[in-house]
Amino acid sequence: MFRYNERMRKNVHGSSCDLPASLRSRKNNRSRRYPFQGDFTWKGVRAEDYKTGGSDWEGILRQVIIGSRGETAKFSLRYFEIAPGGYSSHETHEHEHVVVGIRGEGKALMNRRAVRVGFLDVVYVSPGTPHRLFNPFSEPFGFFCIVNRERDHPRPVGR
Amino acid sequence: MFRYNERMRKNVHGSSCDLPASLRSRKNNRSRRYPFQGDFTWKGVRAEDYKTGGSDWEGILRQVIIGSRGETAKFSLRYFEIAPGGYSSHETHEHEHVVVGIRGEGKALMNRRAVRVGFLDVVYVSPGTPHRLFNPFSEPFGFFCIVNRERDHPRPVGR
Questions:
Q1: Please, what is the Cα angle at B95 between B94 and B100, to 5 degrees?
Q2: B5 pLDDT exceeds 50?
Q3: Model-level pTM?
């Protein structure tokens, strides 16, 4: 099973956790730079599990780069990394995904068709399309996934 | 002055231009893959000028990857490329920018502070922050810029 290094897990956003939510929100809606650290982590961004529950996924970590720290944009920018052999939930929802490959390569299953997602390939997953991202290759597969900030809950496919 | 090659300019999206707008919209809200072609173009995406008017910018081309072909997401994904010595308008607006460097390096002026934007660095430009992207380096500077689909018009700064 795939694990990130400790640096990745401990890389929590500064000291803003001590502020009341309203101040924290205003503070974090300021313009800000998140430097890429070369190892597919961003300074000030914490790695988390893909989901807190469920058993229909394997070997994925998530980093929410924009969208969880008081930003007012109507979208979120997340980075997901799928270990070799890993896969996301097979699911559908009414919101869209925009996926951009940035590390290694993987595949996106959309309806019954699997397409390759390589470096800077962009994939648009339209509302109601059953989909799953997976990594049948031997290197980590990392991608940005942009979504609406307000979105519906995913529904599992085929259960 | 910086120019793209002819391939980039002619790379117009398929044959959908012949369809009525309603059909075109439904057709283009389907799931779709935009393969990266290695030269910072995407198959099915056309390069355009940064803006149709104005004289406060120089040496920029834009490619709207997601957001102009009937997609229903509440955001647009664009790629901009600034030639050496080029710059965007110095402007402010109420919508946010999320900038992700993917080619070369450049700078983002936000208020009076210029920060470096290198490969996969992420910059959040908050509402009302006067800003300009520019390229003081000798290689092209390319970046994704994600914005809300519905957004206010920019206002020039300092005029």
A1: 140
A2: no
A3: 0.86
Test A127 with B33 for CB contact under 8 angstroms: no
- Closest by alpha carbon to A33, among B103, B74, B131, B152? B131
Cβ A133 vs Cβ A80: under 8 Å? yes
A21-64 pLDDT, tens per residue?
666 566 779 999 999 999 999 999 999 988 777 788 999 999 99
Q: Which of B76, B73, B108, B71 is nearest to B95 (CA)?
A: B76
Torsion A99-A100-A102-A103 (CA) sign: positive
Count of pairs with CB atoms under 8 A, one residue in A, one in B: 133
Q: B121, A77: Cβ pair inside 8 Å?
A: no
State ipTM. Answer: 0.86
Identity at A125, one-letter amino acid code: V
Read off φ and ψ for residue A88, nearest 5 degrees. Answer: -90, 170
Tell me how far apart the alpha carbons of residues A40 and A83 are, in angstroms, rounded to a whole number. 13
**Residue whose token pair is 């595949």:** A107
**Amino acid, single-letter form, for residue A106:** G
C-beta of residue A126 within 8 angstroms of C-beta of residue B72:
yes
